[in-house]
């Protein structure tokens, strides 16, 4: 079944939406029932029995309320001799939560044991933290009642589910231990009784040894998340979870790194466990070896189960590169362990606190050399650059249009307005959790910026949402920078937490738009808005003057706005005034007059000035400027 549908126990499968539509594979595995749990769950195949649960992969989604009907559906299917596929979109979070709840009910295992057993057959499953909390709550409150209900209504469980799950856990652990012992025996046989000089010679062509060793580990299926990326087996995934994450499991997430340390003789049983050092050593080896090349556009580092993708470089390609570089012979390449200074540098990953795994996802920190350069200017104060010809004349132009710098910023927590402010600083503002205090903060934002704080979470009534929002705040310390001028609204994301947005310049209309860190993006185009407003009439769609920022969760998507933890709405003050007047006029006139000096002279003069003056924009639409 490859990386698709995975058999967990007899008659029970876990998969993704593609698996649910693969009729041939479903029939081959005896699947007769499909439990679909995602936003647009609906029956697809005529000859299947369905239970469809509409649910998002969101922190606020209540799956616990559906546990009983899902357990009933799965159990009756299996008792009737059928097979049940439980799936969501990716087969990672929602469907895993439902499946684990069922396994808990028909065995004596807790949620962590059932989840670990599921990971033994599908290594990348990971319910978001909210779903994990619901599983924990289920175990503490309803589990015994549901187990009694299953026994009362359906009798003794005829399946050997508990034995199968325990076998999965024990078998995986045994294979991993055997693999590690085999690696140690192989190393001992190569080095036993041999002089140290010969042992050093054995390390030559370390890249060759790493290549062979790593391919063997991928093919062994002993390490969760270490899998081939393509059928040609020229690329592979390697798990890359940060050791500080709340659901980090050293035995699982660090297993491949530990195996490399054992193979290299850098770790033996009884030594102090150092998963970060193990990870760094293998990273050094991969980076130094000519056999491997990271495929950054395939790597996923800000998901709940992050991974990197590496390509195995063919020997002919290596020879070509080496010949171009300096004509050196590939046989001279030696795999070297990281020096202590290299390890220190490589281990400087972003700090990780207790995370809300379902929504709080972080992007990599900027390169260290960038962070250490105190002379890097911010674009809010940088001088015109030859590389950015459209910036010429920026300072003098803005002095005459400072009225466009004011923004109305509104904060919504779980759909409820909790605060708003109108900015006054012409340089822009910074939205963050606390007042910047450290000396290093000057690097990330000019001191002249107005500082706007997120409102306190005390305004949130639901205790769980309050707790999760507070955790999310831990990833928004540096916040975002906002700047408004006659051309539009610009943003620069500094925080580690992900930020998504919608506005009239967004690239994608049908999927979330994510802000990259440390890049300036134009999120609202004032001229475009007024051009749309000129052509508006009551039969059309009134153009939206607002920008919406969503912190920590994907947006826009199918999840209702009231379910989003933190939404921030941004609007230019002068544009808002025009919109209010335009709406008043539209209510009494079928067409929107462009200029009417007899009514609201000041507002319409602004409107006329903006619509009639189409100067070249200071930034191209959606232009991202690397700072």
Automatic annotation (TrEMBL):
Gene Ontology biological process terms, A to Z: cellular response to growth factor stimulus; defense response to other organism; immune response; negative regulation of T cell receptor signaling pathway; negative regulation of transcription by RNA polymerase II; positive regulation of transcription by RNA polymerase II; regulation of cell adhesion; signal transduction
PROSITE patterns registered for this protein in UniProt: IRF_1, IRF_2, TYR_PHOSPHATASE_1, TYR_PHOSPHATASE_2, TYR_PHOSPHATASE_DUAL
Family recorded in the similarity comment: Belongs to the protein-tyrosine phosphatase family. Non-receptor class dual specificity subfamily.
Region (Disordered): 179-201
Subcellular locations according to the entry: Cytoplasm; Nucleus
Protein known as: Interferon regulatory factor 8
Keywords: Activator, Cytoplasm, DNA-binding, Hydrolase, Nucleus, Protein phosphatase, Repressor, Transcription, Transcription regulation
Residue span(s) of domain Tyrosine-protein phosphatase: 4-144
Species in which this protein is naturally found: Patagioenas fasciata monilis
Keyword Membrane listed: no
Domain (IRF tryptophan pentad repeat): residue spans on this chain: 207-314
Alphabetized GO MF terms: DNA-binding transcription factor activity, RNA polymerase II-specific; protein serine/threonine phosphatase activity; protein tyrosine kinase binding; protein tyrosine phosphatase activity; RNA polymerase II cis-regulatory region sequence-specific DNA binding
Classification via Pfam families: DSPc, IRF, IRF-3
Domain Tyrosine specific protein phosphatases: 65-139
Gene behind the chain: IRF8
Matching Gene3D superfamilies: 2.60.200.10, Protein tyrosine phosphatase superfamily, Winged helix-like DNA-binding domain superfamily/Winged helix DNA-binding domain
InterPro entries xref list: Dual-sp_phosphatase_cat-dom, Interferon_reg_fac_CS, Interferon_reg_fact_DNA-bd_dom, Interferon_reg_factor-3, Prot-tyrosine_phosphatase-like, SMAD-like_dom_sf, SMAD_FHA_dom_sf, Tyr_Pase_AS
GO cellular component: cytoplasm; nucleus
Catalytic activity: O-phospho-L-threonyl-[protein] + H2O = L-threonyl-[protein] + phosphate; O-phospho-L-seryl-[protein] + H2O = L-seryl-[protein] + phosphate; O-phospho-L-tyrosyl-[protein] + H2O = L-tyrosyl-[protein] + phosphate
Entry EC number(s): 3.1.3.16, 3.1.3.48
